[in-house]
């Protein structure tokens, strides 16, 4: 999939294993906890992540793999259909950063593990508080204080102040994180003493790659900046009490965003969101002035509650839209080409293993009963997966351009190569344009890309010493020179090799099969094969192509195809 110079670093391959396992665990356990509405689900999930990561540190003790795994897992979370991806992405990244940072300072020892686990889990509490402040503003603090004072009066328990209660809860979070870290360290060390049990091989998924996008036109980078600027402007107007301007502008903003990003705003369809809005309004109206004056209702409090809910609605809508725009493959491609290629390569590998890893995980209700066996199998499967990733990463990237017979594949390809050359993509290979007589294909010409020379390749007229195949006669000299040219082109890892076209002849061992077998077995360069629609699966199977990228000329124009190839040009 990559040239030797482009192979992901071993740390990134290990991080891809950890990141994919972490993401699979988040999907299974997270869905279970949230669907059952388990209290403190975020805290439990954070502790489980600490357990998993500390166990992996017993298996692979290299510095830097945990933060890499966190970035990979966060990127995998970024394509979630959830309306808001910031919270989970920030939480995952911060947990990894805390564990990596603390163990880097204190060392990979029990003290470092315990402190890292405690801080990683309490971060989930801190992030929850921070999210609420971003959503509702600092007026929320006054409402919480008033509500807590009201609860104290009802219960008669005045010994514990609000700040002391928060500290007590935080202490519980820290203890849970330390316990998870200790258990993860113990499990990991015990695994190293056990003999392998022989887990099933992980089946890697055929995928177009993490950076691919079926409908890139739905994104617009300009909208990202417009949304962010609009949100900031409206919040400033609210803070400066420019009520009419803020409400009118905000209403128009919400309507426009709802119109464009309807599928991303699932959060607003959840009753719990509107119940939260109602609770904020009622508590603000009845308790805003209660502590200071004893009044049981305040119009000022009602107004502040409504203002907080309007602010929250703005933030939810804006962040949902921003979450969609951040999935823009153009943004990912820019990052890819500016120092983040290793991250995206490793993430692509992690995605290829995700479905199988999810399938191998048991249901959460059985985690506790078989926890030892489950963890040991997960770690053993991770060692096996690392070997598969290493092998997979060494295979070439092959793009398959597919279409029906006489549909215009070569014409499409010629336009595509023109665009690739404009993008300064280095090309080599062969193109075989045909000629027609009486509406039927009568001959093919072999053209050597970048060389400029041509040879007659095939025709329907018998020529002495030419090889028959179906209704055509093929020039053996052209086939010989074409195969030699393609094999020689494989020595340059920096160029794309074009093969036009692959048909039934190659499946029977003729045509360009000699060169294709060679090129499919080396780690470079990048390749584009033109293949007839009806035999695509047979070609993939015969030449054992790993994770090809497909371009269907029925679905994409050459201009759209170059974007898809351009994103993966260095992959």
Question: How would you describe the overall organization of this protein?
Answer:
This protein is an alpha/beta fold and 571 residues long. The chain has three domains: 4-209 and 329-390, no CATH class; 220-325, no CATH class; 398-567, Rossmann fold, CATH 3.40.50.300. Helices cover 61% and strands 9% of the residues. It is built from 21 helices and ten strands. A hairpin with a 5-residue loop joins strand 4 and strand 5. Helix 2 (41-59) runs antiparallel to helix 5 and helix 17 packs parallel to helix 19 (513-520).
Summarize the structure in short.
With 571 residues, the protein is an alpha/beta fold. It is 61% helix and 9% strand. The chain folds into 3 domains: 4-209 and 329-390, no CATH class; 220-325, no CATH class; 398-567, Rossmann fold.
Secondary structure layout plus pairing:
Layout lengths: L9 H26 L5 H19 L5 H13 L8 H21 L3 H27 L2 H17 L6 H31 L28 H19 L3 H18 L10 H17 L2 H4 L5 H27 L3 H8 L4 H20 L10 H23 L4 E6 L5 H14 L4 E5 L2 E4 L2 E9 L5 E6 L7 E3 L2 E3 L1 H14 L6 E7 L1 H4 L5 H8 L5 E7 L3 H7 L6 E4 L5 H10 L4
Parallel strand pairs: 1-9, 1-10, 2-8, 8-9
Antiparallel strand pairs: 2-4, 3-4, 4-5, 5-7, 6-7
Helix pairs in contact: 1-2, 1-3, 1-14, 1-15, 2-5, 2-7, 3-4, 3-14, 4-5, 5-7, 6-10, 8-9, 8-12, 9-12, 10-12, 16-21, 17-19
